[in-house]
TrEMBL record:
Residues 12-129 form the Thiamine pyrophosphate enzyme N-terminal TPP-binding domain. The lineage of its organism: Bacteria, Pseudomonadati, Pseudomonadota, Betaproteobacteria, Burkholderiales. Residues 412-543 form the Thiamine pyrophosphate enzyme TPP-binding domain. The keyword Metal-binding applies. This is Oxalyl-CoA decarboxylase. InterPro entries: DHS-like_NAD/FAD-binding_dom (IPR029035), HACL1-like (IPR045025), Oxalyl-CoA_decarboxylase (IPR017660), THDP-binding (IPR029061), Thiamin_PyroP_enz_cen_dom (IPR012000), Thiamin_PyroP_enz_TPP-bd_dom (IPR012001), TPP_enzyme_TPP-bd (IPR011766). Belongs to the TPP enzyme family. GO terms for biological process: fatty acid alpha-oxidation; oxalate catabolic process. It comes from Oxalobacter paraformigenes. It comes from the Bacteria.
Length: 569
């Protein structure tokens, strides 16, 4: 294309594509339609990857988990305007809540019509609606601002505490033109978008002092530490100090679960009895009972906390040793400061070890229990996966549900960092198939998804996406026919109980799209199916029939479930 003076022109589509590429973005997840179809086409024709989903929420979840696994580069989701944007917004809010770097790019309608509310096609003030749900919300109105707008979005998403960023792309932007030469001069890549953030020396000295004087210390590893890719520094800190460690769900594998210092199997005892807890990339939020109450032995512990976000300190409890900085730099300095310090108190380490061994023994007994005539339960089925993951540690494990989530977290050991991808900070259902696509596309490694049957339903249609791209994903549906349990009696109003689901043939759904389906009733059948499915490197779904009576209401977070006492004696 050229203008009347024969000057070669480019347009918004091309400048946006070139800017994203220059910034190292090679993959987008989304759903096409007006006005972004031709952007996605151009992207594909240029040799970049576009994973086209059935619903934007799942494309957004794929982008969010891609951001988590990459750490220094956001995952990118592309949607159409209004409804497509809103579908993607849930995932953007999820990324922000979980501190994952992600961009949501959405086409939008004409500003002058939207602003006067004159009823444009898919009219919505998207930029302002997105703003409370992400770190920043931008609109790019001029082709000349595309490089700077994208640079701002990327830097915001990945620097400091990572999170979601929204970028509004009015349809007209794509058609704007500029001489090629001028456009090329505008293109740039931000320098050092994830700068090291070095903590103050006195903060390190203060924390080191608390750690040296601790009698019963524990380390709590969170998914911020996994995302920070400070694997070597974390290992050195844990092994040099000899302090027992506990991982949050997605931090499992940052230190291998079979490491002798793992206290995961005695979480309750460790938290209640410790005197110092060192939080590394983990917040004292609901998942940690806000650092108070029975879980923490009803007393204020001394907390050392490493976090990049200054106001995370004292969010729930006073922090005695705050270290504000990035985890890699902070731990490098802390490791130096603790060189030569005595190892953690042997009596405390021994007490935890004893509890760990006892609890592991108890769990092993439950896992070895014979299968009842009514079907497998969570313990005797998931032992198969435990063995499989030990032998295949480079498989990604996606996990959601209630009992399906809690039991998998408890039973299945992880040996590598950033392999366990779960419901996260919101305890959300629906991340399943999006995470499978995101993890498979970023890592190139196989994915196993352990899904409650309810959880699977939130994103189940995306098995078509998984089959279309022929991804190495094996889904295990833990089919107990319900939310938590599948045996609740009907309420007597002519309808089925609100917790019940059809204990259906999910395996046949997979077959409908050309994948392989398995129906299994015993651990032996599960083992055979799992081995064949993952080895095939093709889309597979194992419908694991679980006793409808297995599981407990709300899983491990029963205490959060409000129960009416009215009318009860
Ligand atoms: O020390 P103690 O004695 O306490 O024991 C602990 C460990 O020491 C021990 N342990 C071990 N023992 C032996 N050996 C080993 N190796 C070992 N490892 C550990 O085991 C226990 C437990 O360990 P853990 O997990 O470390 O400790 P604990 O105390 O559980 O930790 C606390 C938490 C809070 C950190 C942890 O429990 C946690 O991470 N929980 C996450 C909970 C969560 O997020 N749940 C999901 C949400 S539930 C609900 O909201 C659901 N909904 C509603 C809904 C949602 N969520 N989203 C949307 C969009 N719409 C609606 C729905 C619809 S769940 C749900 C569907 C459910 O039905 P499904 O069919 O999908 O699933 P099923 O239940 O399977 O039917
Ligand atoms: P979990 O759910 O595993 O407990 P959270 O999501 O609650 O983890 O906490 C993660 C924390 O990690 C957040 O407070 C976030 O600010 C912090 N964080 C993320 N990346 C880094 C980093 N590179 N350095 C320091 N802190 C980080
Ligand atoms: Mg269920």
């Amino acid at each position: 294309m050229s203008n009347d003076d024969n000057v070669e022109l480019t347009d918004g589509f091309h400048v946006l594509k070139d800017t994203l590429k220059l910034n190292g973005i090679d993959t987008m997840y989304g759903v096409v339609g007006i006005p972004i179809t031709n952007l996605a086409r151009l992207w594909e024709q240029d040799g970049q990857k576009f994973y086209s989903f059935r619903h934007e929420q799942h494309a957004g979840y794929a982008a969010s988990i891609a951001g988590y696994i990459q750490g220094d580069k956001p995952g990118v989701c592309l949607t159409v305007s209004a409804p497509g944007f809103l579908n993607g917004l849930t995932a953007l809010a999820h990324a922000t809540t979980n501190c994952f770097p992600m961009l949501l790019l959405s086409g939008s309608s004409e500003r002058e019509i939207v602003d006067l509310m004159q009823g444009d096609y898919e009219e919505m003030d998207q930029m302002n609606i997105a703003r409370p749900h992400c770190k920043a919300s931008f609109r790019i109105n001029s082709i000349k601002d595309i490089p700077i707008g994208i640079a701002r979005a990327i830097r915001t998403a990945v620097s400091g505490r990572p999170g979601g960023v929204y970028v509004d792309l009015p349809a007209r932007l794509f058609g704007q033109t500029l001489p090629v030469e001028e456009a090329q001069k505008l293109l740039f890549k931000p320098i050092d978008p994830v700068p090291a953030q070095i903590p103050a020396a006195d903060a390190i000295a203060r924390a080191a002092d608390i750690i040296k004087n601790a009698k019963r210390p524990v380390v709590m590893l969170g998914k911020g530490a996994s995302m920070a890719k400070a694997d070597a520094e974390v290992k050195q800190f844990v092994e040099q100090t000899g302090i027992p460690f506990l991982p949050m769900g997605m931090a499992k594998g940052l230190m291998p679960d079979n490491h002798p210092q793992s206290a995961a199997a005695t979480r309750a005892f460790a938290l209640a009895q410790c005197d110092v807890c060192i939080l590394i990339g983990a917040r004292l939020n609901w998942l940690m009972q806000h650092g108070k109450g029975k879980t923490w032995g009803n007393e204020l512990k001394k907390f050392v906390q490493i976090d990049i976000q200054a106001n995370e300190m004292d969010s729930n409890q006073p922090i005695a040793g705050p270290i504000v900085g990035d985890i890699k730099s902070s731990l490098a300095l802390l490791n130096e400061a603790l060189k030569g310090a005595p190892k953690a108190n042997a009596e405390w380490v021994g007490a935890l070890k004893e509890k760990v061994d006892t609890n592991k023994g108890k769990l092993a007994t439950k896992m070895a229990a014979p299968v009842a005539p009514t079907g497998m339960n969570y313990s005797n089925s998931l032992g198969v996966l435990k063995e499989f993951m030990l032998a295949n540690p480079s498989v990604n494990l996606v996990n959601e549900g209630a009992n399906a989530l809690d039991n998998t977290r408890m039973i299945v050991d992880m040996l590598e960092p950033r392999r366990r991808l779960d419901s996260g900070t919101w305890g959300v259902m629906g991340i399943g198939m999006g995470y499978c696509v995101g993890a498979a596309s970023v890592t190139g490694d196989p994915v196993i998804a352990v899904e409650g049957d309810s959880a699977f339903g939130f994103s189940g249609m995306e098995i078509e996406t998984i089959c279309r791209y022929n991804l190495p994903v094996t889904i295990i549906v833990m089919n107990n026919g319900g939310i938590y349990k599948g045996n609740e009696e009907d309420p007597g109003n002519g309808l089925v109980s609100c917790t019940r689901l059809i204990r259906g043939r999910y395996d046949q759904m997979m077959e409908a799209f050309g994948g392989k389906g398995y129906l299994v009733n015993t651990p032996e059948e599960l083992k055979a199916a799992l081995e064949e499915a993952v080895a095939s490197k093709k889309p597979c779904l194992i419908n694991a029939m679980i006793d409808p009576d297995a599981g407990v209401e709300s899983g491990r977070i029963k205490s959060l479930n409000i129960v009416s006492k009215v009318g009860k004696k």
